[in-house]
Amino acid sequence: MANDVKVPICIAGMVLLVVFCTVASVANGLLLIVLYKDPLKCFRKSIVVYIAALALLDFLSGCVTGPGVINNYILCALGREVSASLNGTKFAAIPAEFTICTANLLALLLSFERLCAVAFPILYRRKSSVRRSLFCVGCVVVYTLTFSLSALAGPRWRKTPLRFHMNTTIPFIALIAVNIALVFAIRWQNRKTQCLLEGLEGSSNSTASKRRQKEKALTVTTQLVVTCFVISLLPYLTFMFTDLYFPEYREEDWFFRMSKIVHSVCLLESGYQSSYLQLQTCALPSRVQTRFQGPRCSFTRHTAQFFYKVT
């Protein structure tokens, strides 16, 4: 491919990566600060563990994975790119694979946690705990880190389709299946709760209705976040399948143009998650808003309001 076409594409992708990495680092860094300070003393639920893990992972995406991929784009613009694969050099490929696979599994855990909370509320309140959630997150990190480092074993193992399917394809399909089940669980639970509320009166009816609205709002928020994650990951999966099963397309102009934008799109989800969680906190009761006054703590106030739904 001629350099007059290659250089502008690499520069455009690099600019997008710089923007996305900046958004991911700042937004998720602020969210981690809020989680650490815990202004409302309400971060004691298992779902907060998964949200914190996603925020930390997205923060690392902007600070570690992003610069590695940007380095690959710089080599591309200078004409010194030595790798023809989609992920580029090992310096960029290993962190990118770890980030994407871990985010995929953490989103799966978050969706499964919401499914249990909606479909089995009594069992969920008895069995869910922060310690169990931390154990699950730790298992995911060990699993994905082991498979990501196994890429150092050699190019033959790194290019094995089975390895890609175990890390990305199977968890991705499971994520979609769990969210489909979550949609049906919400509908079934709404009908069941409506029938139960018809027999209640006064304060009991009001309390049960508010509790149902909290769970529903948090579940819908989770589904929207996961849906955006799935959409942002689809281009990466498409080009990875093409790279694995049709390597002859690597030399095509269209494949080069599109593949250089894929990583920029994948890193987009690192920035939107924290921002979206903040936007979802604006419709909470005024008694929570009065706990945080002043323009300097606007981010803390809005983020803490979201976690009020959990308590």
TrEMBL record:
**What compartments host this protein?**
Cell membrane
Membrane-crossing residues? 12-35, 47-70, 90-112, 133-152, 164-186, 217-237
Q: Where is the G-protein coupled receptors family 1 profile domain?
A: 27-242
Keyword Flavoprotein included in the entry's annotation: no
Query: Is Glycoprotein among the key words of this record?
Result: yes
For this UniProt record, give its keywords in alphabetical order, as a comma-separated list. Cell membrane, G-protein coupled receptor, Glycoprotein, Membrane, Receptor, Transducer, Transmembrane, Transmembrane helix
InterPro entries hit by this protein: GPCR_Rhodpsn (IPR000276), GPCR_Rhodpsn_7TM (IPR017452)
Q: What is this protein called?
A: G-protein coupled receptors family 1 profile domain-containing protein
Annotated source species: Desmophyllum pertusum
